[in-house]
Amino acid sequence: MKTTASGLRANRWVTVQNRTSTPDGDGGFTDTWTNADPPTLGAWIRASGPGTTERTVAGTITSNATHVITIPYHAAVTTQTRLVSDKGQTFSVTGVTNLDDRDIELQLLCAELVP
User: Fold this and answer.
1) CA–CA separation, 110 and 65 (whole Å)
2) CA quadruple 33, 39, 65, 109: dihedral, nearest 10
């Protein structure tokens, strides 16, 4: 079990990434994922809710699993953020709660992106 600088018990490390759009030179844009600063945080990840859901997007079946992830406060985390765990899981942040509005911990509602 890891412990972060804020005292949060962590069972994983996650990299915080935000989408960056850059001009592609042909009048369009290319989206890439850029690591936030600092990029890596200890996190407590647990599955919650009803479990896995499947849906069809553009003829492809995608699955989402709902998780609650608690991390030390990070100003760059929004609902446009994704997290990549040290076990290779990728999570899309769908909700952000600043616990007690103290800027110490964030509780994130996330959907695991399952290819």
Assistant:
1) 8
2) -110
* Sign (positive or negative) of CA dihedral 96, 99, 104, 110: negative
**pLDDT in tens for each of the 115 residues of the chain?**
565 555 667 888 899 999 999 898 898 999 999 999 988 888 888 776 545 555 566 666 655 557 889 999 999 999 999 999 999 999 999 989 998 999 999 999 899 888 7
- Rounded Cα distance between 102 and 81, Å, is 21
Which CATH number does the domain housing residue 70 bear?
Answer: 2.40.10.270
Please give the tally of structural domains in the chain.
Answer: 1
- Give the tokens for residue 62: 């995608």
Domain span including residue 47: 2-114
Give the rounded distance of the alpha carbon of 76 from its chain centre: 11
In sequence order, the β-bridge partners of residue 63 are 54, 114
